[in-house]
Please model this.
Amino acid sequence: MRLQVNQERCMGCRICELVCGADATSFNPARAKIRIREPLYSHPMVHVCHQCESPECVEACPTDALYKTETVVAFDKEKCISCFLCSESCPYDAIFIYDEYPLKCDLCGGDPLCLTYCPRGVFKLVDGFYEGGD
Model:
């Protein structure tokens, strides 16, 4: 399962970052596992884990803190040594650093908040891992 992103629909409102970075007491976009970047003179770009079929981040991780399950590329914080090789190896710039640990989309357990709250319908939940081409 993965998020398919329609980049052209994104208007850069960052609601996805807000809901992703929320917990019971606060909204903190720095904790978000999705990011909107707005390059100078360009359209906003959504950066979120592609849930790759052959994830380079998993290959780069020396402690198996990142691993592939039947549905997502998952992260085990207890195994992480904060080397950030996963972030450096991600070809989609979709692993972020916060509080000395990497952050990557876990699809909110199968019910992604960004999908629910995006006012422009940027996201679509699709089956399977990313094999390129979207």
Summary: The domain at 2-121 is CATH 3.30.70.20 (Alpha-Beta Plaits). Residues 4 and 108 are 15 Å apart (CA to CA). Helices lie at 15-20, 56-60, 85-89, 113-117. The longest helix spans residues 15-20.
